[in-house]
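[agent] plan:
  1. take the single chain provided in the ticket
  2. run structure prediction with default settings
  3. attach structure tokens to the ticket
  4. add a short note for the reviewer (M.T.)
[agent] executing step 1
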Amino acid sequence: MRKFLPAPLTCPAIFLLTFLTVAPTLVHAQNTEPLDIATLNRIRTEALEHSQIPWISHELTDVAGPRLTNSPGWHYAADWIVKTLKGWGLSKAAIEPWGEFGYGWSAEKTSLSMRTPYYSPLIAYAIPWSGSTHGPVSARTFLVESMDSAWIAAHLGDMKGKVLLLQAQDTTDRPRFDADAQRYSDSALAAIGDMYMLSKASLASIIPYFEKMMSVQRMIQSSGALALLGSGGGRDGTVFVQSFIGYRKKDQPELPSLEVAKEDFLRLERLTRDGLPVTVELQSDTKLYDQDLAGHNVVAEIPGTDPTLKAQLVMLGGHLDSWTAATGATDNGAGCIVAMEAVRILKTIGIQPKRTIRIALWDGEEEGLLGSFHYVKSHFGDPQDMKLKPEAALVSAYYNLDNGSGKIRGIFAQGNDQAADVFRQWLVPFKDLGASTVTLHNTGSTDHLGFDAIGIPGFQFIQDPLDYETRTHHSNEDNYDHLVMEDLKQAAAIMAAFVYNTAMRPQMMPRKPQPKPEKFIFDDLIP
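[agent] step 2 finished; step 3 output follows
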């Protein structure tokens, strides 16, 4: 991927020439935004020529490991971030609890192999919050052909002492000719629409499904089966591993459960259907952590200096939690890496922001935006009643990054046309780095939504997709090696510039009309 990257344009002369070429369009704009070109140039130079992104990336992925909420990896990363932010001179760096989340969890040892009709090692990963085998077990397989409760009830006796295979829903018999990684073309950016948007109706339809699956899984657990094997997606060795239940007290205990690479799983399924004596040996030693059931966010500040504006906030962040089959590099180590680098840049070049800048790195995003939503609810107000706290009026904007390792190509304005006018002008100095698109469309399923739900301007950047959806998102390939360092450097420069501009702007960012009271879209999603 890196060989397709253009060389970064870091020369101040080139930067100023590029800006001056387009500057006349700003002079005649109806509401011209004052731009501090000297400071933006310093931000850009620090980001592209003196980046700390490779080091931050290594620490948050290779060193910390998987960062499942409340797991040892998450807490290690959070402690390291607090120490690092303090070392950079940020104030009030802390790990802030937001309420009860539930259990932490880790996979201590995972292995799977077929022993008969012949030996073959298999690719598999323990599903988060699944139970432990407490050492190796060996057993015949049994194919679960339906998750219908009547079918399960009729076959409970056949499941005892077996390793269950949940029938695959698709195969890999069709070759794939599309490239795994892509960058947006100009035409694709011009046509970009809503992304990752879920309606309340579609989410509501998921609740009965969750209820059914939880009921069926309790039936399966009562059967005396030893373990559960599934294959929920991926191909060519890519395995997607996630879970939306298990962390709450009422979810436990759970069966040992593994997600198996599609090709390996389909072979097991075909052999089992043939009636051959298929025996597997597996070990899935897992551990629950109940010492602290609270959820936490990591926060820190660069204090504002203007006597009349320093109580106001500009926020930036991404979610720190990840899944467990890899080290959460693109989802969402990348967003945390960029946000950390952005505040490092601003501290390093010695800015004195008028407004206070607050970085927030969330947990529980993968389980339904829990960390950010509870932060908003605690500090600013609940969208369900819209009884906002005084602090809500002091937040100028929140900027989020959570769509992988791709460079920033623009920003979703979330229907805020006045903010869109501002953003178009702010992106002019970065057009040569590939960022110029501003769309009024919305993007969902990440941590700006809690802010937007109560009327605080919350935004997510548009990023090149690269191989995020095809290879790394929630998968065993979401490691350091899928981070594109030059893209992250570019993203840090733009995020730092947006935060700086917001902190120095004479007025707060314009707001949309205040939303009507409405339950948050992800609140109480899982029964």
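[agent] step 4 note for reviewer: Residues 1-29 have pLDDT under 50 and may be disordered.
[agent] ticket updated
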